[in-house]
């Protein structure tokens, strides 16, 4: 048996010990030279004050081996076989894939780990436990344990809530553990399954760090821990309720995939590696085409659906350059507010007396795709479906389960429920020329009981199966994942969808930081980013169209408004839609770059083409600046020996009119010349190492730059 295995990429390497037990020895910067003899340098001393033998942090992190910290596996067989110790029994190795299987014949358990490292430097791994002897094995926990070096001392986790997703939080990892648990029944607004650990003060552009994404749309536990001997590790697991997984002889349970990468170039390097992996291996489109600009009617009409008005909205949308028109909530029977209707997936003939096809046909005549909203996992009690099948709820009988948004969850593990929803979607997608569905999930799950037993894991897997079956039968239809905005955003659901609704909060000032947080793991083309009405319905703030337009530019663009009622903004919306279309090939294929700034009121972010031929960057002023002079913008990741022409693509209204606004008496010379139409050219080296002097902006304004290689 080969004792050591190396998986390698141009970015980083993984070195595994295979025998006598499976252990990760190294995951870090790519090694140009490697000799198994070098592993001698990693041998650990055995200090006083502990066991008399070295205790490795194996993949199973067994307590029975002397690991006194959180193990990978917890379970028992009627109180027995609760402290296994695994020894490697088989190794499968081919190119950049390896599977290690370890056995404990006393406990009657097999523990297997799979690894795959792609050329982008993204490693994915998962564990499987198999019951190999008679008697049921109750699985309490099965996660993934990943060791980190001792200089990984800072944790960047993410928290949030409805209307405020993907907020970063930093914690020093000196002693004890940082634990993040999510019991919401979905990957959640509150604690999404992502974690970054690195050397202290890592930033957008600098530092060594490890990024982790646990691809699961259910409950999760994330842990970053430091042992008293200084060794550090992280753990990721699907958080199981009591008795949720019981394995009969021969049965197995497999964890979700963990995706990780190492970056020596700060958060930007990590993001770019993850983004390339997502583009190549995770998100799949029914047909290759640019991401179409959306108009969703929700913020325009809410539940008030009138066919003539909706067709007029579509006509105005087409004039603005919209390419996909979506009817949101309110099209089915009983859905005049959020108290009823969910589950009764039949057309409301009072609102649509001639059916959906007159609207769909007109949308297609206008050259747009047609989309529609559903929320298949949910039910309201004032519905025909609940009256006929009150036993279809995911619940524990006898309890008064609390509502959220006046709705409950259907038990997708019930074959009758699954078949009913599939039949309704076959009707909707089979009888209508629908190109796109927005699949929502507007509540957290309380007491997920299937036949009285805890079953959130089963509910999540059944949801995946429903997605898979719908996609199999209707492969031309794209799907947007939505859960009150950003409540279900992860790589596993992205394998079945093409777009996320990032947040129900479409207000540009809040969206700047929400979208930045999401950008760490997800490329722009998966991030729904819409221009909303002047006064936003989430915050009540009124913001200039220029700022709203540039904020929505850096994602999968759409608009949220009634273009009939808000005709005054039509030309402005059309302008930013056209600007987005002119840039989206770059936006949706290039490297996302975020720039470190000394002033927290300022954000600079952009996208650089893979071949460095062009780049766009946005300088954003969130609030009143900290200093009188805003400093210099050093443009990162350009080709040093090339010459670039600088374009100012968009400015706040006051600057476009040639006035100085509130904060500047005189503009920087280069900007004066640019506003006068002069051509400005600098070398990539000069722009990257020296840079451009910036101008002070009013709060909630932005400037858009383009750099074009001559």
UniProtKB/TrEMBL annotation:
Catalytic activity: Hydrolysis of terminal, non-reducing alpha-D-galactose residues in alpha-D-galactosides, including galactose oligosaccharides, galactomannans and galactolipids
Biological process, per Gene Ontology: carbohydrate catabolic process
Binding site for substrate: 162, 328-329, 405, 438-442, 482, 504
Domain Glycosyl hydrolase family 36 N-terminal: 21-234
Annotated EC: 3.2.1.22
InterPro entries on file: Aldolase_TIM, Alpga-gal_N_sf, Alpha-glycosidase_related, GH, Glyco_hydro_27/36_CS, Glyco_hydro_36, Glyco_hydro_36_N, Glyco_hydro_b
Keywords linked to the UniProt accession: Glycosidase, Hydrolase
Molecular function in Gene Ontology: alpha-galactosidase activity
Active site: 440 (nucleophile), 504 (proton donor)
Annotated family: Belongs to the glycosyl hydrolase.
Name under which the protein is recorded: Alpha-galactosidase
Organism (species): Conservatibacter flavescens
């Amino acid at each position: 048996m080969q004792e050591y295995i190396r998986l390698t990429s141009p970015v980083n390497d993984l070195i595994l010990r295979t025998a006598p037990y499976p252990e990760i020895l190294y995951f870090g910067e790519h090694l140009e030279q490697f000799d198994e003899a070098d592993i001698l340098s990693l041998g650990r001393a055995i200090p006083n004050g502990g066991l008399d033998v070295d205790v490795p942090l194996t993949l199973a992190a067994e307590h029975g081996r002397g690991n006194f910290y959180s193990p990978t596996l917890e379970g028992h067989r009627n109180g027995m076989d609760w402290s296994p110790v695994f020894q490697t029994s088989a190794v499968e190795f081919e190119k950049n894939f390896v599977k290690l299987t370890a056995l404990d014949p006393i406990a009657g358990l097999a523990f297997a780990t799979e690894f795959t490292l792609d050329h982008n430097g993204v490693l994915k791994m998962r564990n499987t436990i198999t019951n190999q002897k008679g008697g049921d094995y109750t699985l309490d926990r099965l996660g993934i344990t990943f060791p980190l070096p001792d200089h990984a001392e800072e944790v960047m986790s993410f928290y949030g809530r409805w209307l405020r997703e993907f907020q970063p939080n930093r914690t020093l990892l000196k002693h004890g553990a940082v634990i993040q648990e999510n019991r919401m029944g979905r990957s959640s607004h509150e604690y999404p399954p992502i974690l970054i650990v690195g050397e202290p003060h890592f930033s957008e552009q600098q530092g060594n760090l490890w990024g982790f994404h646990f691809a699961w749309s259910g409950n999760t536990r994330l842990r970053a821990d430091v042992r008293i001997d200084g060794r550090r590790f992280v753990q990721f697991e699907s958080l199981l309720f009591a008795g949720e997984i019981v394995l009969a002889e021969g049965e197995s349970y497999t964890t979700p995939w963990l995706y990780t990468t190492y970056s020596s170039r700060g958060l930007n390097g990590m993001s770019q590696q993850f983004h390339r992996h997502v583009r190549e291996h995770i998100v799949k489109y029914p047909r290759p085409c640019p991401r179409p600009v959306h108009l969703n009617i929700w913020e325009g009409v809410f539940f008030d659906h009138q066919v003539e008005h909706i067709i007029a909205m579509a006509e105005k949308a087409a004039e603005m350059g919209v390419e996909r028109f979506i009817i949101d909530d309110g099209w089915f029977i009983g859905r005049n507010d959020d108290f009823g209707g969910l589950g009764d997936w039949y057309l409301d003939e009072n609102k649509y007396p001639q059916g959906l096809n007159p609207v769909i046909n007109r949308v297609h005549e206008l050259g747009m795709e047609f989309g529609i909203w559903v929320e298949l996992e949910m039910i309201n009690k004032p519905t025909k479906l609940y009256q006929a099948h009150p036993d279809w709820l995911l619940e524990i009988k006898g309890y008064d389960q609390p509502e959220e948004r006046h709705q409950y969850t259907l038990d997708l593990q019930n074959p009758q429920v699954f078949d009913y929803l599939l039949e309704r979607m076959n009707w909707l997608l089979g009888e209508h020329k629908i190109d796109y569905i927005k699949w929502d999930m507007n509540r957290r799950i309380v007491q997920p009981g299937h036949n009285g037993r805890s079953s959130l894991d089963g509910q999540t897997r059944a949801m995946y199966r429903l997605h898979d079956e719908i996609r199999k039968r209707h492969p031309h239809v794209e799907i947007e994942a939505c859960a009150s905005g950003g409540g279900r955003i992860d790589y596993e659901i992205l394998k079945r969808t093409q777009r996320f609704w990032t947040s129900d909060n479409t207000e540009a000032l809040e969206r700047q930081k929400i979208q930045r947080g999401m950008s760490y793991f997800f490329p722009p083309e998966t991030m729904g980013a819409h221009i909303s009405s002047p006064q936003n319905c989430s915050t009540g703030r009124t913001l200039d169209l220029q700022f709203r337009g540039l904020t929505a530019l850096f994602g999968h663009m759409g608009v949220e408004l009634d273009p009939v009622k808000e005709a005054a903004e039509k030309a402005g919306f059309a302008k930013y839609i056209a600007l987005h279309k002119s840039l989206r090939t770059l936006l949706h294929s290039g490297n996302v770059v975020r720039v470190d700034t000394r002033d927290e009121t300022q954000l600079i972010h952009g996208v650089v083409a893979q071949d460095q031929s062009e780049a766009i960057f946005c300088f954003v002023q969130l609030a009143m600046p900290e200093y009188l002079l805003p400093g210099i913008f050093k443009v990162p990741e350009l080709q040093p020996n090339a010459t670039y022409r600088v374009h100012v693509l968009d400015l706040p209204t006051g600057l476009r009119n040639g006035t100085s606004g509130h904060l500047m008496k005189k503009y920087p010379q280069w900007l004066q010349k640019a506003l006068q139409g002069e051509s400005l050219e600098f070398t990539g080296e000069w722009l990257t190492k020296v840079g451009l002097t910036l101008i002070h902006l009013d709060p909630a304004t932005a400037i858009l730059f383009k750099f074009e290689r001559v």
